[in-house]
Amino acid sequence: MTRAYNFCAGPATLPAEVLQQAQEEMLDWRGTGMSVMEMSHRSDEFVAIAQTAEQDLRELAGISDDYAVLFMQGGASSQFATVPLNLMRGKSPADYVNTGIWSKKAIAEARRFGEVNVAASSEEQGFTTVPDQASWKTNPEAAYLHYTPNETIGGLEYDFIPDSGDVPLVADMSSSMLSRPLDISKFGLIYAGAQKNIGPSGLVVVIIRKDLLGHAQSGTPTMLDYKVIADNDSMYNTPATYSWYLAGLVFKWLKAQGGVAAMGEINKRKADKLYGYIDNSDFYANPIEPRFRSWMNVPFTLADDSLNSAFLKGAEERFLLNLKGHRTVGGMRASIYNAMPEAGVDALIDYMKAFEKERAGHE
Amino acid sequence: MTRAYNFCAGPATLPAEVLQQAQEEMLDWRGTGMSVMEMSHRSDEFVAIAQTAEQDLRELAGISDDYAVLFMQGGASSQFATVPLNLMRGKSPADYVNTGIWSKKAIAEARRFGEVNVAASSEEQGFTTVPDQASWKTNPEAAYLHYTPNETIGGLEYDFIPDSGDVPLVADMSSSMLSRPLDISKFGLIYAGAQKNIGPSGLVVVIIRKDLLGHAQSGTPTMLDYKVIADNDSMYNTPATYSWYLAGLVFKWLKAQGGVAAMGEINKRKADKLYGYIDNSDFYANPIEPRFRSWMNVPFTLADDSLNSAFLKGAEERFLLNLKGHRTVGGMRASIYNAMPEAGVDALIDYMKAFEKERAGHE
């Protein structure tokens, strides 16, 4: 068996150690005679697995008791509706910042449940930058302020936490959760689809300040009411138990790596290496304003688009997989989440050098 | 490693062969160098896994091209809202039949989205029977007629498919899907949480007649609009890929067993054995009218409730697990889904006999 370096944006590579443990425990979790996915979600064993995962996440991310942590289903796309359904609270508008495709999706869905004010947008700049916060047209009476700290497709990442004053700050952290230290206390709500830095798809983690619970609009499906989920410890119905367990294994792995502070250093080093090589090359390019370049998703183009398929073919031969850029952006994209080892980035750079040398005739 | 006989109502036991295959493929699916849970849902490999699973389900259940098959998230509890949101179609009321706790949950949630008519109920009979269809007060103008073919908690199962005339028939088949042959063409919509007969929790399969697509109420979250999910082959967003893959392995296993016709024979034999033993004993009892006894969930009581914990302790010592009845019903419950081998039922009966002999002084 050989493991590939998988640069997929999500579902994404997971730590080999996590998969090995899941493999060992697949048919018999610690002598119980059953797989975790066969356990009652109400059993002592599974409740312990679930609570340990939550506790480890709280420790890793520094989440205080002022916040509830929810393990929900439906991915971030469901949260695009769930957030306005729960947080509009009879107020108007909800402020949104538009910095890319995922921002736009969140905005389009929110408009179905209330008035949305796009407080700022970098669409005219091709989403290559984050608008200066001084220019944002936020509303002090807004229900909340929503932004997308890391745009998975565009490869754009905020290098600051917006100041929303007394308005609850809401963030889609699907592709940046746990990638570096973060002051959770600045947020009203954070949500993150699991399939990048947390675990398998089919799970979405929600961190919500408790005073924001209990305000769902009438007509909110019960399964999308944060208070119902919080009051039932995310077991109002059967949760995605196996995904929850795997997320717990990832949290343990993160703690063993030294937590998010250590991951942040490693992730910065990985990103710096890759962007550094791209910037020093005339053959590869990345269009994002340097201070807003994502540590997680690195899009890049080749000097000649007609070389794209040859680049991808050669990469696959070296087991460097899923480097094709998103269909709306083109070019390449290397997603280098927590579970992508630094050696994977080194292998990618080595290949990029070799390809450039061969195709561009560079020394 | 010893595998238990796990009688949990859900998440439930899975075929050992399925878990073994998942274990083997955990770190490297067929030489791809990655786990299925690390694959892009848009990759050729995963799309093939997904399509094969759908095709196998269509073959197993006999689902024609008049129906879309959707792989959604949120379990049956999400469907309790999704069904009225999509199928009310400006009509009123929706007819519901109340035969137990899961019917009642479906009814309570539907009332939040439209008028509900409870056309029949066996609540006064303690949910020990299914009301004779001749007595149902259905409305010929109803948006749909909803029923629960198998009540997982009560252990009550319809032995007929209701005749709903031109009104679409909707069924929560979470705990009876694929347990015996079924004429799908009689239904407008079937939904089934996966964690009993299909796979792990976090996945819900929906089979919907295509003419019922495209009628979602305004205010329906996009992720709950059946037409959006159908138009995008259940990949409007990232689906629960690993659960989908596991469901596909279960479908392959079912085909290898001979399909639902063979499973129906085995399931009937398993149920007949267990009910037969209960009926011939003065020590154990089941309250359900015999023709409506569930083949999947067999609740039973002991002659003396004070023996319950001793019964459960002895069962656990024999690795017969999760026999405790639902907290709302008490007593015991043996869930004997497709993946519970006949030998597991035999082992349970052997233990019940030994316990009865010891505690009741019977020969």
From TrEMBL, chains A, B:
InterPro entries: Aminotrans_V_dom (IPR000192), Pser_aminoTfrase (IPR022278), PyrdxlP-dep_Trfase (IPR015424), PyrdxlP-dep_Trfase_major (IPR015421), PyrdxlP-dep_Trfase_small (IPR015422). It comes from the Bacteria. L-glutamate binds at R42. Pyridoxal 5'-phosphate binds at A76, S77, W102, T152, D172, Q195, N237, T238. The modification N6-(pyridoxal phosphate)lysine is found at K196. GO terms for cellular component: cytoplasm. Binds 1 pyridoxal phosphate per subunit. GO terms for molecular function: O-phospho-L-serine:2-oxoglutarate aminotransferase activity; pyridoxal phosphate binding. Keywords: Amino-acid biosynthesis, Aminotransferase, Cytoplasm, Pyridoxal phosphate, Pyridoxine biosynthesis, Serine biosynthesis, Transferase. Pathway: Amino-acid biosynthesis; L-serine biosynthesis; L-serine from 3-phospho-D-glycerate: step 2/3; Cofactor biosynthesis; pyridoxine 5'-phosphate biosynthesis; pyridoxine 5'-phosphate from D-erythrose 4-phosphate: step 3/5. Residues 5-348 form the Aminotransferase class V domain. Homodimer. This is Phosphoserine aminotransferase. The lineage of its organism: Bacteria, Pseudomonadati, Pseudomonadota, Gammaproteobacteria, Pseudomonadales. The gene is serC.
